[in-house]
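Hi P.,

Sorry for the delay on this. The queue was packed all week, but I finally got your sequence through. Input first:
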Amino acid sequence: MRSPLDVVKESNRRWKSDVVETPLDLIRELNRRWKSSKVETPLDLIRVLNHERRVRATTDRILDRVRGVR
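Then the structure:
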């Protein structure tokens, strides 16, 4: 299983956003992305990353349906 830091680094490469190198940078970046819900605890971090994963999976499903891939 990948660490949350690795997940965000991969997302940064994909979206070409700010570089996240340390766990503190990770929390700052997540707080910048999610203005309405501040990340203060590891549980908050897991909740935000799970939400991003669900959004990404839904987007991929919709794109596959549009492309005609099943």
